[in-house]
Design brief:
Layout (H helix, E strand, L loop, with lengths): L51 H16 L7 E3 L9 E5 L11 E12 L3 E6 L7 E8 L1 E7 L5 E7 H14 L4 H4 L1 E5 L5
Antiparallel strand pairs: 1-2, 2-3, 3-6, 4-5, 5-8, 6-7
């Protein structure tokens, strides 16, 4: 993974819990599921600069959720926790075995450049539990976004990190991986 000469600060837990007005503070996020779930099928609204502070605590909760290995995810989009805004959290991983990675929040992420080459990998999703499928995605992408503090960034992501960000941005557009996957299979949790 190549990062364009940027220092991205970790989000720290702050004492001011400014959740969106429709979302009460919660210790554990509830993940929305289902192919026909209304919010998972809706395009998310842009977060305006005046709204950033309102979504910081949510971003921090989403990061905590993804960093907790018991939750089994590598990325999360706000619609998955019933907030229809363009906010995602991604793990900047090279591979699933990577133990030295950061998890960051991206507000209003947009793919501004991408590779010509695509590759298929197996994907799953917290919002579509029990299913996997092969999804073709670009091998690298350049993403512009702002952090929850309002700083602007552009990152070039490769390999697994590129796949994660593409998957999460799809959520912001109402697309589930099962919409574009081939060879969808049911998985058994006992495996």
């Amino acid at each position: 993974m190549v990062i364009i000469q940027l220092k991205i600060p970790f989000l720290s837990c702050q004492s001011d819990n400014h959740y969106p007005t429709n979302l009460a503070p919660m210790s554990k996020l509830k993940i929305e599921t289902g192919d026909d779930n209304e919010i998972l099928r809706s395009a998310s609204d842009t977060i305006k600069p005046t709204e950033l502070k309102q979504y910081r605590a949510l971003a921090e909760s989403m990061i905590k959720h993804i960093k907790n290995p018991d939750n089994g995810g590598v990325g999360l989009a706000a619609p998955q926790v019933w907030v229809n805004k363009r906010l995602i959290v991604i793990s900047l991983m090279r591979t699933y075995d990577d133990e030295m990675y950061r998890t960051i929040a991206m507000v209003n992420p947009e793919i501004i450049e991408h590779a010509a080459e695509k590759v298929k990998w197996e994907e799953g999703c917290l919002s579509v539990p029990g299913e996997t499928g092969d999804v073709e995605r670009w091998v690298w992408v350049k993403v512009s976004f702002i952090d929850p503090e309002g700083r602007k960034y552009a990152l070039r992501l490769e390999s697994l990190a590129a796949r994660i960000v593409q998957h999460e941005i799809d959520h912001l557009d109402g697309i589930l991986f099962t919409d574009i996957a081939e060879n969808i299979q049911l998985i058994n949790d006992a495996d």
